[in-house]
Amino acid sequence: MTNHDLLIIGGGPAGLAAGLYAARARLSVLLIEKEMVGGQMATTELIENYPGFSEGSSGVELAEKMREQAERFGLRIELDEVMSVDFTRPEMAVTLGDGERTGRAAIIATGRRPQLLGVPGEIELRGRGVSYCATCDGPFFRDKRIVVVGGGNSAIEEALYLSRFASEVVVVHRRDKLRADRVLQERSFNNKKMRFVWDSVVTSIEGDGKVEALAVRNVKTGKTASIATDGVFVYVGNLPNTEVFKDEIELDERGYVIVDPELATSARGVFAAGDVRVGPAKQVATAVGDGALAVISAERYLENV
Ligand code: NAP
Known about the structure:
The protein is α/β, with parallel strands linked by helices.
């Protein structure tokens, strides 16, 4: 069992930036990622607001570049799931499928996952027309009808992307105003393939083996309606991936990690970076900034223990 200076849990933009900073600072560092590097960023078709990429970049490409850059400085990445953690020992321990890894400090960068709608038919038809990833599944919907649920940046950005394939994109939103940034709103209102169903919530997703229709209810009038569709893309927010840490560090009431200005958590030597921590901005740019700051804070901590 090797003891590392630093364990990084999560390989999205926050974890990869932390990996780059730590490896370049010559810390012995291990990054543990459950599925694939890039996290939610890698499920985004086009990222236009990450500086340095004047034409934008796909999330997958940006993730690959971040990984390559960090590995060039010696970052080691293990693909495995963290089953449990123990941050009370001087050498904090992370248990993976094949045993324990220990480190003198740790950075939590596990990000978030999509929130489900929680309506009948959603689970049953997942992968059969119900999707949470336009980048992954959009191309299956060429010339088909699509419904996107939600009114935030993700919903509108992905609806715009899906309009490239679909014959029609209907956005179902529970209010009569979008939460998405103004630039995305303008683009979506000008998009000939898009239309909006306002003040409406989805009550069920229907279909025999694949999505065929969506039942919606107008929250102002109480009227119900059915929208015929081939696909439903759900973008109604996210949940932090913090279940495994809940007995070890302080979380807020929604499950986000509470940090101080240096990104230190309530556990000594444990820092948190990116979407997983409490904070108003959930952006690739802010996640990367967090990754850098978390390593600088971890280095300061390591020098003093
Ligand atoms: P979000 O901003 O929380 O938006 C979630 C949307 O879903 C809101 O419109 C919300 O309605 C709606 N909603 C929530 N629960 C619902 C339910 N049960 N039924 C129906 N609708 C529901 O989440 P997000 O769009 O995933 O974005 C998450 C964060 O990432 C945000 O901070 C966002 O700015 C950021 N992000 C940024 C970019 C970018 O900068 N280009 C791209 C993607 C994401 P209400 O509006 O009524 O609350």
